[in-house]
Amino acid sequence: MSTSQHKNIFISGGASGIGREVALRFHKEGWIVGVYDIDAAALEELSRDYPDIITGELDVTNYNQWEEALADFTAHTGGRLDVLDNNAGIIGDHDIVDQSPEIIKKQCDINCTGVIYGARAAHPYLSRTPGAHLVNMGSAAALYGQPHITPYSASKFFVTGFTQALDLEWRKSKIRVVALQPLWVQTALADVDAASTKRLGVRITPEQVAEVVWKAVHPANFFERQRHFYSVSGLDLTLRYLIRLVPSFITRNVNKFVAG
Description:
- The chain is an alpha/beta fold.
- The chain has 10 helices and 7 strands.
- Strands 3-2-1-4-5-6-7 form a 7-stranded parallel beta sheet, sandwiched between helices.
- Helix 4 runs parallel beside helix 5.
């Protein structure tokens, strides 16, 4: 099979944590996998362990680097791109008055601008690949605004709105746009001083998230293709639907308790 016939996935921020597990999940299935990250040491380790995974450095807040990284990766795929996984993201914790202006800006730049840049730069490749997907990494922190991780929570509301809007905008390009909305995952990102990590626990594994990414880009039928948001655990799925059903004052008080 030629490289242009192999399916492929490009993962931003994929050298560690969730991104790495997504890379390994798709690699196991024989996909061409591209992992691009700002962490040179983690990229080197991944390349050493899996030399056939394509790697490169990428600062997602730099649009030129997005264009260069995608051009580099698609040179290995015959110009095709089946899946872009907008995985890169960071978090800052503590009350907003205790977060530096620099970390506040960085969360917005990476979690919001970086996601838009990735989508825009990838569109020419995705639009010429039948069945293409854009996967955005959202969070259950976007179900209701979370104190003590306020900029992060707000940035994930952005991802939700961006996913909804882009799904409609890209219908003409036949690109399916989806987002995951998990609770806390067992990665360095969950190592924060937020009461919700203790009240809800950090139970989801990166492997579980990777499995849902795999499922999301393999919709089984017409009805599954109409779905655009994915939970990972039973708890975050329950929370997602309860927030839609219960009165807002109850939702507020539940989140007040969870957030401490």
